[in-house]
Design goal:
The complex is a heterodimer of chains A (about 60) and B (about 260). Chain A is mainly alpha-helical and about 60 residues long. Chain A has two helices and one strand. In chain A, helix 1 packs antiparallel against helix 2. The longest helix of chain B is centred in the middle third of the chain and has 35 residues, at about 155-185. Classes of the chains: A mainly alpha (about 60), B alpha+beta (about 260). Chains A and B meet through strand 1, helix 1 and helix 2 of A and helix 2, helix 3, strand 4, helix 4 and helix 8 of B. Strand 1 (about 1-5) of chain A pairs parallel with strand 8 of chain B, so a sheet runs across the interface.
């Protein structure tokens, strides 16, 4: 078992919580992200960056 | 606040949050200083951000840029973390943004009961722990990988089938073990929540993630919880513990 130091939080763990957790104030928020799947967006951003890294490494 | 500015909102807490000098002025998202707003007997931590970056259209584009997303997520987390170490707080979802401070105060007043209930659920030093379990490789994998052209085709196929059956059985046993682990840990927690297992491309590990769970644990039980994770020994699983976190996965307005 490994215990991650809180100083080196993996982004993927952080996004698990920030994008799937936290109170969502639907309908009250002026900047409406309704219909925008935050988790999906971040996953796409993360995966495309991982893919780019993989391409750079022959 | 000016017309081209917005109020980025991090969290909601008790009214006394607004007097905590340790928190006010901390650098927030976009590096603006953190401020407190009070309404409905509650307080919210906010900071001013620019509309050209955090307005609806710009935000959608920026969220797709990983360096921006990471910087924003870490800045949001830093504020939540600092406050949650000193107060019970209800974190808000990343990118909760209002046109101005009035919008924030409105939402505090309208949801005051819900926020107070949410605060009561995490009051008294309840923190979140994350437990992830990865599938370990089936031990017979290496032996079963027959070299190309080794023996007649039928024998090769039979070997392949046997290897696949062993691997399926191993995975089923791992799923069962993960479920046992989850119930075992949930029994020592105030509440639990299952997250979607992370994409293997993102975990940087070979093994499939079969459990991605969050547990809300009383501070006085935290050591026992850590030990329960450390002592769990199952050859099918490799475990990873993260935390303690602010209660991100347990901050909701709809539970009763």
């Amino acid at each position: 078992m490994t215990v991650a130091a809180s100083e080196e939080l993996a982004l993927v763990d952080l996004l698990d919580r920030l994008l799937a957790g936290g109170v969502v104030l639907t309908g009250d928020v002026t900047i409406s992200l309704a219909g925008v799947d935050l988790v999906h967006i971040s996953l796409r951003a993360l995966i495309s960056s991982v893919d780019k890294l993989a391409e750079q490494q022959p | 606040m000016k017309d081209d500015e917005l109020a980025y909102t991090y969290l909601v807490g008790d009214a006394e949050l607004s007097h905590d000098a340790e928190l006010l002025g901390l650098p927030g998202v976009g590096r603006g200083p953190v401020r407190a707003l009070s309404a409905g007997g509650l307080a919210a931590l906010v900071s001013t951000v620019e509309a050209r970056t955090f307005g609806e259209e710009a935000l959608k584009e920026n969220l797709e840029r990983l360096p921006w997303l990471e910087e924003t997520a870490r800045a949001h987390h830093a504020v939540v973390e600092a406050a949650s170490r000193r107060h019970p707080v209800v974190p808000l979802r990343l990118a909760t943004i209002y046109i101005d401070d009035h919008g924030v105060c409105d939402v505090l007043e309208r949801n005051a009961t819900g926020f107070r209930d949410a605060l009561d659920r995490i009051r008294g030093g309840r923190r979140e722990w994350g437990v992830k379990a990865y599938l370990t490789p089936a031990p017979s994998d290496d032996i079963s990988a027959a070299p190309e052209g080794a023996g007649p085709g039928a024998s090769y196929l039979a070997q392949r089938r046997a290897a696949r059956d062993r691997s399926d059985a191993w995975r089923r046993a791992a799923m069962d073990a993960a479920e046992d682990l989850h119930w075992h840990l949930a029994a020592g927690a105030v509440a639990s929540r299952l997250h979607t297992p992370q994409d293997p491309r993102l975990t940087g590990r070979g093994g499939e993630m079969v459990l991605n769970a969050a547990y809300l644990v009383e501070d006085r039980d935290a050591e026992r919880f850590r030990q329960a994770v450390a002592a769990w020994n199952d050859q099918h699983l490799q475990l990873e513990l993260t935390g303690p976190w602010a209660p991100y996965s347990f901050a909701t307005l709809d539970e009763s």
